[in-house]
Amino acid sequence: MSITPLLNLPVVAPEGEAQPTYAELLGMLTYSPSLVLLGDDVDDPAVLRESAAIALADSQDWEREAWANMALDVLNGRTPSVLNSFVRRLAAAVALAFGVEGGIA
Question: What is the DSSP letter of 43?
Fold first, then answer.
């Protein structure tokens, strides 16, 4: 029995807006209240792409900017957080799933 995904959404910015950056993708996937990513979800590029599409559709520019800054602060060690290991793992997965580069400064 095969499972058909409920969503097959590309990560496409609304008309007139730029595509999300690495930091914005990381921030949305970490902090969007529309999502609950569990450990195994991080290893599935399809889940990450679907989740990012949902978060992008359900967020404002100012939220994405704030989430991006918060995620990069955790990733770069500027803000101690219980999310540290999750954000590091998610950062590597985002780079693979979306073909974007970013990371520790």
Answer: G
> d(Cα 5, Cα 46) in Å, to the nearest integer?
9
Distance CA 32, CA 52 (A): 9
pLDDT in tens, 9-66: 456 555 666 788 999 999 999 999 999 898 889 999 999 999 999 999 999 999 999 9
**CA 53 to CA 105: how far, in whole Å?**
26
Global pTM reads 0.81
- Pick the closest to residue 24 from 79, 80, 66, 58 (CA basis): 66
Domain ranges across the chain: 22-98
